[in-house]
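Section: Multi-chain targets

For targets with more than one molecule, the full set of components is provided together so that the structure can be written out for the assembly as a whole rather than chain by chain. Components appear in the order listed by the source. The example entry contains two components.
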Amino acid sequence: MSERREVPITVPLLARVEGEGALELTIRDGMIAELKLRIFEPPRLFEKFLEGRHYDEVLDIVARICGICPVAYQMSASHAIEQILGIEAGPWVRAMRRLFYCGEWLESHALHIHLLAAPDFVGFNSAIEMAQHYPNEVRRGLHLQSLGNELLRMLGARSVHPVGARIGGFHKAPEQQAAAALLTKLRAALPEAEALLRWVCQLPLPEDAQPFISVALRHPHEYPFNEGRLVSSAGLDISSDRFQDYFRESQVAHSTALHAHHYPAGYGTGGEAVPYLVGPLARLNLNHDRLPAATRQLLAECGITFPSRNMFHSVVARAAEIHYVLLEAIALLENYAPAQPSYVAARPKAGIGYSCTEAPRGILWHRYELNAQGVVVSATITPPTSQNQARMEEDLKRALTTFGLDHDDNALRLRGEQVIRNYDPCISCATHFLKVNVARE
Amino acid sequence: MPCRATERTCVALIGVGSPFGADRLGWLAIDALESSALARRFPHLQLKFIRSDRPGALLIEQLRTVDGAVIIDAMRSGVASGAIQTFLPEELARESALLSSHGFGVAEALALAAILGELPDQLLVVGIEMGEEVSEGSLPERVIEPLRKRIEALLSSIRGDGAAQRGR
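Its structure, encoded as tokens over all components, is:
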């Protein structure tokens, strides 16, 4: 029975997320009156930092946006700038960029599942507490994460804010011996990825199906990293240069991060603006048929049907993507040979370029304008967490109502945080995010 | 050579930090120790010099295969710039493990390693107080000398038959 009262509930600092943010919730007469995801990390202004910089500097600057997903920023920037310069990086660079992305998804997903998300589902407050009861699972997660970091180091010289990528390719091709040694480690880790996916599938995940629009890249043959058309579960199918015709960011008073909405009928047509989902679950919902047969088989054994409308299945999607990237990295390294040179040279050229690639947390859209000297005139970067914010607020309203607003404040706080962690929000990236304040009135 | 592939006791000297500002102190310390005669003074030990870039929980992976470790990091405690302080893992104040992944530092990694049984038998954490005059270029001798002495004292107490000890 709902009470006629207004109660504020506050989660002043969201736990186990990437960065700092808060959730404020006001329950009035037994209903959610107000819900705000408050991102209070200061704006980071990277787009303005890029103005006046030569295109050769862009990849090292955008890599600093995130310590977890720097490759995504480098890849979206590379493709957009190469579009302006009119160069094709070729099959070797293409394969190494996919390998680079495999490393990033592996380290990011393994960190999220084991250190951030899994404690929710096995009844612990932290990975440190969980490790007392699940030591082998935590060890497995740390090992998979470290393999991802090794891949990043091999191509990027370091795993945090890597410096190996350049416009046109990579500064240096990895040595054959280093690639062979890593291939051996990745093959040995494949049973760990299989065990991880089976373990995640048997976790007691809440049932909470909701309607939402999934948005992701889709490639004719591959599970998407760098290339593909932008598609949605509502029928959108566009090239990434048309992103702003259907997606727009806007300022909200309670957040230093921009919110993004999808305009299914096109921006400026007077049609409705709706929240949308990007990230592993959206990717898997739209690209399940692009997964290798071995990964699809493991998912079939899992008993979860994709597309899924339950955001708690995002942890399963992440584990499936870990299995996928191990298979993909192994395939790429089995055919590895160093290239000389390891990049395609380019000359400055004026123009506007666009690119969208799949960061671990979802599509990351970049737009650059260069002048004839190759200097950045303007830059627009739309990160996945900004795109998911409106969907997170919508999900929280539905999920907490379904959970039951008569639960005590602590239970509401915990469920709210769990819902948010499903998105693996990267708040530092988005400032362009979590404490939770709940008010009952 | 990988640590566990040797008969000798393997000790990792791990500088934790990043390439930026005072966060470089741990790396600068490793530069100084690697170029010193430390390895020649302790031939019965296999010393690994590691510059670890913001490892978070992955510090555990770096501790897993060694018999002993010294972790060197920049600290801010209010003492004189360049001052050395040593800690046991349990003496480090932990952030709440409930906080964001950005708060998962050396203390949290060591706490998780302890639960997983991954702490090496010999472990020392060394803090170097940050300050402008010790954060640029190479570390001054007034910092290196006490640091080297403290590490030499630890290394002197470690037996060299790592493989035999591991077999116990």
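The mean pLDDT of chain B is 83.
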